[in-house]
Write a structure and sequence with these properties.
By secondary structure, the protein is an alpha/beta fold. It has helices at 11-21, 33-42, 60-69, 89-96, 108-119, 122-126; strands at 3-7, 26-30, 47-51, 77-82, 100-103. Helix 3 links the parallel strand 3 and strand 4 (77-82). The longest helix has 12 residues, at 108-119.
Length: 136
């Protein structure tokens, strides 16, 4: 199964995203951008759900910039989440380098459908590949 990082300082948001995705993806929840970046460098995920407003030295937009600048993370699908309404979400995505943006409060179903459209339907995401066996 593909791994998705959920980075948000609010445990309830992380939990909600996890509940929406955990039956089809491996979900790892991380509370801040610095820890997320370190985890990504060690084991790159297929995607990241990233809150824009994060406490600490690095916010979500800066982490998005670092992901796009790091060669080993170029294939990571970045989904931003923000509580700040934007007049044109697609312009925000392009300006930030994200692949998608969801406004809070968000629909867990829409978020799951987004990832299913990116990585394949439920049957594709939920069934791990069976290793081939060779007989001698």
């Amino acid at each position: 199964m593909k791994k998705i990082l959920v980075v948000d300082d609010c445990p309830n948001v992380r939990r909600l995203v996890g509940l929406a995705l955990e039956d089809r993806f491996v979900v790892e929840q991380i509370p801040n951008a610095h820890a997320a970046y370190e985890a990504m460098l060690e084991d790159p995920p297929a995607a990241i759900v990233l809150d824009v407003m994060l406490p600490g030295l690095m916010d979500g937009l800066e982490l998005c910039d670092r992901i796009r600048a790091e060669a080993s993370l170029q294939d990571v699908h970045v989904v931003l989440m923000t509580g700040h309404a934007r007049a044109d979400g697609s312009a925000f995505e392009r300006a930030s380098g994200a692949d998608a943006c969801f406004l809070k409060p968000f629909s867990p179903t829409a978020l799951r459908e987004h990832f299913e459209s990116v990585f394949g339907g439920p049957q594709d995401a939920a069934v791990p590949a069976t290793p081939a066996t060779h007989s001698a």
